[in-house]
Amino acid sequence: MIREMRAAIFDLDGVIVDTAHYHYLAWKRLAQDLGFDFSEAENERLKGVSRTRSLEILLEIGGLTMDEDARARAAARKNAWYVEYLAHLDASEILPGAAEYLHSLRGRGVKTALGSASKNAPLILARLGLTPLFEAIVDGNMVSRAKPDPEVFLRAARQLRTPPASCIVFEDAEAGIQAALRAGMGAVGVGRPETLKTADMVIEGLYQLNALLGIRSSA
Length: 219
Ligand code: B16
Ligand code: MG
Prior knowledge:
Elements: E1 7-10, H1 20-34, H2 40-43, H3 51-62, H4 68-86, H5 98-107, E2 111-115, H6 121-128, E3 136-138, H7 151-159, E4 167-171, H8 174-182, E5 186-190, E6 201-203, H9 207-213
Parallel strand pairs: 1-2, 1-4, 2-3, 4-5, 5-6
């Protein structure tokens, strides 16, 4: 289906910046504190998933159960470590071509929004110096239903005053692709076609779109 892109909605982790590694370090630290190891391969299961659900998966991997209070405390400890790691984040960690692609969209009058599960998204955008490139920011603090529910992307479209059919979502997680499709939006997968099977198209990174448009990408 060919559609006019009047608005572009971006996931954060895995599309604009690779914060997955910092999430991994913080979850691994929690796992070790709880007495089990947590591998990078297992961390793949947490990508794009909310903090609460990530903890449930981690506990399942460690074969542990916790009551609600203990889970809330564990998630808060993990987040404190994660935020500590984010203190060192800077613009050099923006994924190749992301900033240039956002600039080019704005230059062509395409509206831009962020649609991320992360409650730390505003902090991350500020550290990367990217906040001014988004007209709307919808993050994990503003939604009650996680991807694959379309809530996050529908809210972003509403804030941009753009009908869903004129929005394209850029996402690295299959749950996010599902959310975009359920919202009635176009879905561009960022990553590998094997893992993003239902996307309308898949690219390796935003730098590829710059190449098509003749724009030079950083890094
Ligand atoms: P936080 P995205 C997601 O970001 C991450 O991919 C996922 O690993 C993380 O658990 C989730 O945000 C929640 O993050 O703990 O910072 O609220 O890919 O939706 O931009
Ligand atoms: Mg992501």
